[in-house]
Amino acid sequence: MNSTPNAVPLSNRLDGKTVVIFGGSSGIGLSAAIQAKTAGANVIVVGRDATSAEKAATAHGFDGWRAADVTDGAAVEAALRDIPQVDHLVLLAGTFVAGQVREAEIAYLHRAFDERIWAAIHAVRALGDRLSPDGSITLISGALADRPNAYGTAVLAAASAAMEALARGLALELAPVRVNTLSPGPIDTPILSKSLGENRDAVVASMRNSLPLHRLGTPEEAGAGVLFLMTNGWMNGATLNLDGGSRLV
Ligand SMILES: NC(=O)c1ccc[n+]([C@@H]2O[C@H](COP(=O)([O-])OP(=O)(O)OC[C@H]3O[C@@H](n4cnc5c(N)ncnc54)[C@H](OP(=O)(O)O)[C@@H]3O)[C@@H](O)[C@H]2O)c1
User: Fold this and answer.
1) Looking at residue 1, what is its pLDDT?
2) How far is CA 166 from CA 102, 154, 169, 170, in A?
3) Residue 71 in 3-state DSSP?
């Protein structure tokens, strides 16, 4: 009989596991939370806005919710304080930080790193040895990390690439905890309207034209990538490019 964890069907591979998802109240994180719940996990979602986090948890039967701004280390620590053990930590919280380096406010550009690198560092330190040795951490980057553009995304691209490097370093430092990064291409989530406002539809139409699959990815496809990184015990120190081939054009 094969007793490796990956021989267990995905449908119940997370039975009894505690999964904490920062950014789990919307988009990719919400879809990952729903899929983790379906796979048997106890799911706690963390969002910045309390009302959205509570609404998501109630609607999908999650086991808890927290409100915390990940740019505030003390808030991250408080959100994790009463959770005795975490098996899988997922750090997806973030906004589309876009501003030209010579023009944007420095405090605003800092957010790209504060929401990603420093949030991850605060969460890992806050959990300490409450992170299960056979568990995992999933970080978020994005196709910008290796396919930049001239539209004010240089700092976000840098923060995204840094997440991939952080994951590789943590995979060694925290071993045997596995640490990976999901790097999505364009996914159709609320982040598009939040960042593009009334230009959303025009930008999406233009993206559809140029993308190899003539569509954006769905939150479910991206959430499935998170589940794969969480449950495949041989994924470690890796970046999963999940982008419909957007890096190729
Ligand atoms: N969608 C894409 O095409 C794409 C591509 C590459 C990378 N990404 C990255 O993937 C991650 C998830 O994006 P998404 O598309 O799922 O966006 P989304 O639907 O806007 O979800 C973002 C989530 O992060 C939370 N969040 C944002 N800032 C936060 C903060 N300072 N503190 C705590 N929580 C915060 C949001 O909570 P509130 O709603 O309460 O603020 C929400 O739960 C982001 O880091 C994004 O940069 C997305």
Assistant:
1) 45
2) 27, 18, 5, 6
3) coil
* Distance between CA atoms of residues 101 and 159, nearest Å: 13
Instruction: Spell out the domains of the chain, with CATH numbers in brackets.
Output: 9-186+223-244 (3.40.50.720)
Q: Which residue ranges have their beta carbon within 6 Å of ligand 1?
A: 23, 25-29, 47-49, 52, 68-71, 92-96, 115, 140, 142, 184, 186-187, 189-191, 194
pLDDT at 220: 98
Nearest CA owner, ligand 1 atom 26: 93
Q: Ligand 1 pocket test: pick from 92, 108, 182, 218 the residue with the most ligand atoms within 8 Å of its Cβ.
A: 92
User: Please, what is the average pLDDT of the chain?
Assistant: 96
Place 23 in a pLDDT band, splitting at 50, 70 and 90: very high
How much distance in Å is there from the Cα of 25 to the middle of ligand 1?
Answer: 9
- The residue contributing the CA closest to ligand 1 atom 19 is 27
